[in-house]
Design brief:
Distance between the termini: 77 Å
Number of strands: 34
Number of helices: 9
Number of domains: 3
CATH class of the largest domain: Mainly Beta
Largest sheet: 16 strands, antiparallel
CATH topology of the largest domain: Beta-galactosidase, Chain A, domain 5
Radius of gyration: 30 Å
Structural class: mainly beta
CATH architecture of the largest domain: Distorted Sandwich
């Protein structure tokens, strides 16, 4: 062996180590942490104009509660412990000022409108129990309150219309356990192995068949994860209309296709062997087939988006700015996410865009399923807004915003990370063209948009609410439905009402309808509604008169009245329908914003139904009405429990008034049919379960405003497209080779439950 060989190896190893060290050091220099430009959510206190729309702070809510406790002259019980015969505060929310006042403040240099709260109170402890709404102000130091109930609704709101409090659900649970179930101990023990902890309930609405009813079916499930798809075949109808809990009673019982007078009769029939028993296999606590625990081990991580130079949007208080867009956001306790003062390139295009209601109508051959018509606004789309999970519900590096609410209690509750805002590269071009004819070039623009999102979990369903802002001046409202399907116990002719999902589980057919309020102000408050479409006309070819051509031509119509602007769900609607301004663009066209709806809705409910007027907004895919302060919402939280005498009837908004050159509101309904199927186990996916609308500029600009975006790419065959100054994409290896700063994962969704 050559004695120099070990020294050669040592020298070679040293050289290799030096080269690797240089590579690692070089790589380290090329991959610094990404620039930190955090979109800080500032504390309330700024004099920003958008604060006129800001949600109440926790301190403001607390002051309203203290004011009401000291100035109404009646005792107020904490709603979380209230009996039906008590007085309590059901909710406190922002009272949005009148539009005229706000516009004088925003646009005319007028005084800032008084900041006020809207308090909903249940008065059960008085001779005439009722629901009363008070406006309380001025905040932050309340000094007055006024009863606005009669002004808003034309009279007092009867007490039976009140949405159920959590305390009433708890009291009903105690009633079922100590009174109803106590009457059938043998049946429950031998059929369900009942031990007071292994069953869960889902209630139905509305509560009965006529005004004044408060009679509710309780559907019994195994108390496991995803219990919604574990029915056991037992349903109990409870009459809880009395304000005296001791007077509550079981009105009817249903088990495995048979009806019984009460639990006593069910127990007697079972003991005597006169019941057809269908034993349901007891599943483990994780729910077995309904468990959402992944069935596969962790593998390669999914793609993650990041912002190499920090967020390109800013948030100040409740105000967001993104490129040419700006808007204010808020969260209503009943209707959830809402936007105000939406502007593009500094000009207001919409005053308010908000969710109004989410409706589901179910079918089944079991009583609970067949009688269910959920109007989720009455439960609270804002109240049940979920804490968001970083990296799944929203991108990991999104901005997460905390919100506060006060409902069913005397203290406000902080909802951590209940709203998220993020810019998203949608992975496709907003527009592009590759030219290989005549001149050779490529031009394109990445479709990067800003998304504002909240997710409401109302019982079994999760609604993902998005508002998306695009660089071409278009804006989208969208909802995606996920969560668990509701189910009934499979028996008899159950397959007429859905599909079998498991051994005893019938996934029940149901509809989804969502209603939005879109108060567009296109080029000013006064707008008209115009419809454009296409028709074929037959014409002779001028160069060959013996030949005919079917030629498309543009049709135009101004819709002058509310009746003309109310389009039924199944009716043919013009494909281009837009709010037209009183100004024109460079080419002489009225500036406008077009409404484009994505929906697969069928019939909401037959109009002959006694409860149809309560959901009459769902008759229309689009209805445009004159804006009125006394018509702020298309429905009411009180319609759920008394749909037979609705507190607000949307159909009455449409009375053939003139809508030419007026302040107009578009009421948009989108929906779809859901027939649960085996792939809804363990639960429903968002893919294909999405509906909504687009607002698109239509001759509003002289050309596409996105041409001024900094994200545009253009190069010709004669240019050096590898040069950064020609093509910014060529710089990505340098500008985007940073390491994003990922904050540690946290989640507060299980605290303070």
């Amino acid at each position: 062996m050559n004695p120099k060989f070990p020294y050669v190896l040592l020298v070679g190893a040293a050289v290799i180590i030096f080269i690797l060290s240089c590579m690692l050091l070089t790589r380290g220099r090329r991959s610094p942490s990404c620039e930190s430009q955090p979109s800080v959510v500032e504390k309330t206190g700024s004099r920003s104009q958008s604060l006129v729309f800001a949600d109440l702070t926790a301190e403001e809510m607390s002051r309203v509660v203290r004011y009401l406790q000291g100035n109404l002259g009646v005792p107020l019980v904490d709603a979380s412990r209230a009996k039906p015969s008590d007085n309590c505060i059901a909710s406190v929310d922002l009272q949005v000022p009148a539009k005229a006042e706000v516009l004088r403040f925003l646009d005319g240099g007028g005084a800032r409108p008084a900041r006020e709260a809207l308090a909903v109170l249940y008065f059960g402890n008085q001779a005439d129990p009722n629901i009363t709404e008070y406006v309380v102000g001025p905040l932050p130091a309340p000094a007055y309150h006024r009863d606005v109930t009669v002004h808003k609704y034309g009279g007092k709101v009867p007490y039976h219309r009140r949405p159920m409090l959590g305390s009433e659900y708890k009291q009903l649970g105690v009633f079922l356990e100590t009174v109803a179930f106590a009457a059938a101990p043998t049946f429950l023990r031998e059929v369900f192995e009942y031990d007071r902890t292994n069953v869960a309930f889902q209630t139905t609405v509305p509560h009965g068949f006529q005004s004044g009813d408060r009679v509710t079916w309780f559907v019994v499930f195994q108390n496991v994860s995803g219990f919604f798809v574990h029915p056991v075949g037992l349903e109990v109808l409870v009459d809880h209309s009395s304000l005296d809990i001791s007077q509550w009673a079981v009105s009817r019982v249903f088990y495995n296709g048979q009806y019984y007078r009460d639990m006593v009769q069910l127990e007697s029939a079972y003991v005597q062997g006169r019941i057809s028993v269908e034993k349901v296999r007891k599943v483990p606590w994780d729910g077995d087939f309904s468990s959402m625990k992944p069935r596969a081990p962790a593998a390669a991580l999914f793609p993650v988006q990041y912002e190499p130079q920090g967020p390109r949007y800013s948030i100040r208080n409740n105000h967001v700015v993104f490129q040419a867009w700006s808007f204010a956001f808020g969260m209503s306790v009943s209707t959830g996410l809402r936007l105000f003062d939406i502007r593009h390139k500094g000009e207001r295009v919409a005053y308010e865009i908000s969710v109004q209601e989410a409706l589901s109508v179910y079918g089944s051959n079991c009583p609970g399923g067949m009688s269910t018509r959920y109007m989720d606004g009455s439960f609270g789309l804002g109240r049940y807004t979920s804490p968001l999970v970083r990296g799944v519900d929203c991108p990991y590096l999104a901005t997460y915003v905390d919100t506060h609410s006060l409902s069913e209690g005397l203290r406000p509750r902080k909802r951590k990370a209940s709203l998220c805002i993020f810019e998203q590269n949608l992975g496709s071009p907003l527009r592009r063209h590759y030219s290989n004819l005549q001149s050779l070039y490529y031009g394109g623009l990445v479709n990067s948009a800003l998304v504002v999102r909240s997710i409401a979990t109302v019982g079994n369903y999760d609604y993902v609410w998005d508002f998306t802002f695009y660089q071409n001046g278009a804006m989208e409202g969208k909802v995606q439905a996920t969560g668990y399907p509701s189910s009934s116990f499979l028996h008899g002719d159950g397959l007429r009402y859905g599909n079998r999902l498991w051994e005893h589980t019938l996934g029940t057919i149901h509809t989804h309808f969502v209603n939005y309020k879109v108060d567009l102000d296109v080029g000013g408050v006064k707008n008209s509604l115009v419809a454009h479409d296409m028709a074929f006309e037959m014409t002779r070819a001028p160069w060959s008169p013996e030949q005919q051509i079917e030629r498309p031509r543009l049709t135009k119509k101004v819709l002058d009245t509310e009746d003309q602007a109310a389009f039924r769900l199944q009716s043919k609607m013009p494909r281009y329908i837009y709010f037209a301004a009183n100004s024109k663009n460079k080419w002489g066209h009225q500036r406008g914003y077009r409404i484009q709806i994505t929906s697969f809705a069928g019939d909401h409910i037959p109009e002959a139904s006694a409860m149809e007027r309560a959901i009459s907004w769902a008759r229309y895919q689009l209805a445009v009405t004159r804006r009125k302060e006394e018509e702020p919402t298309s429905t009411s939280i009180y319609n759920q429990n008394d749909p037979w005498t609705p507190t607000v009837t949307f159909a009455d908004f449409i009375n053939n008034e003139t809508i030419t050159n007026e302040d107009l509101v578009a009421w948009i309904t989108a929906g779809f049919l859901h027939i649960p199927h085996s792939e809804d186990i363990p639960n429903t996916v968002t893919v294909g379960n999405s509906v909504g609308f687009l607002l698109r500029p239509y001759n509003y600009y002289d050309l596409d405003p996105s041409i001024y975006s900094h994200d545009g790419v253009f190069f010709t065959s004669e240019q050096d497209f590898t040069a950064c100054e020609i093509n910014p994409l060529a710089c990505l290896p340098k500008t985007a080779s940073c390491l994003p700063n990922f904050p540690p994962f946290t989640y507060d969704g299980f605290r303070n439950m």
